[in-house]
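A favour, since you know our structure tokens better than I do. Would you make up a two-line entry for one protein for me to read? Write everything out right here, beneath this request.
=====
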Amino acid sequence: MRCVRAVLLLTKLVAQETVLRVHLSGDNMLGTFILPPELRSRIVALRPYFSGGDIRFTNLEGNFISGSEKPSKCSEASRQRGICYEFGMPIQNADLLREVGFNLAHLDNNHTEDYGIAGYEATKKVIEGMGITTLGKRESKVLVIKGLRVGLIAFGFSGRSYHVAHIPQAVSLVRELSKKADVVIVSFHGGAEGPTRIHTPDTVEMFYGENRGHVRAFARAVIDAGADLVVGHGPHVLRGLELYNQRLILYSLGNFIVVNGINIQGPNGLTGVFEVELDQEGRFIRGKFHSMRILQGIPTPDEKQEALKLIQRLTKEDFKGGNLLIQEDGTFLPASKP
């Protein structure tokens, strides 16, 4: 009898070890000024939302600078017209990524070269120096987590990206990565931006003359090629969820910590943290969404659950429920067993 109990205990422990926990947040821009203690403490207070994750993800918009660097992305005319933005974050704020608990930062977006390639490389070095894995332009990696080989790959829409609009290339890259990994996570920056773009269209999205991808076709294609979790960001608003072939797609994580420079009015100010559990083969088990609203640039728990209600509505309207049950406490589960 003691032997049977030991086997059952061992089986339980193995099962626990093969659940991959991924905690996800959206776009971060840590201010264009040195943050005062009050704001820093409010940001650090977000740490409990990430402490249980094996992967603790965010997308970082902008470059860390010492103060002498000059932005180089925008023309002076476009800056004056307010149609081009460059984000230089004081290097004194960089440690907040570590203090919140992030261990994976996506760096393939339209602001990580605001200070040129040199700014991108310097920012990458600062983040990696804190022990945080970066996922940059034209980059894929394989990490070993809980004995699982976890493949990571980034897509974006810059000239140096694996482009989200180039689906055949994405399929080829993900297929090759899946040969080296037990679980594959695709992170993409794509889709049009702003409060009117909360819906996920079933078409190519153009914005400022740029092809920002057909994100539905992209997400489903990379899953067919071997991806297990697809994580989208870039529209600066939350979008609906979809379970496709037992794999979860989050089409947009919205804004997260955006102290200044990014609109947080209306739906742009609705955010939260997604907790996602995957089995050892990458299949979605369950999730939990912590609904928040951005106040003074910092996510704050929202008793009204407005962000959760928005996700519930968009998932229903855009994906006919997305094969998911999204409950009132933020828990979301497969709508039915395969």
Q: What stands out?
A: The chain has one domain: 21-334. Residues 139 and 153 are 6 Å apart (CA to CA). The domain at 21-334 is CATH 3.60.21 (Purple Acid Phosphatase; chain A, domain 2). Confidence is low (pLDDT under 50) at residues 6-15.
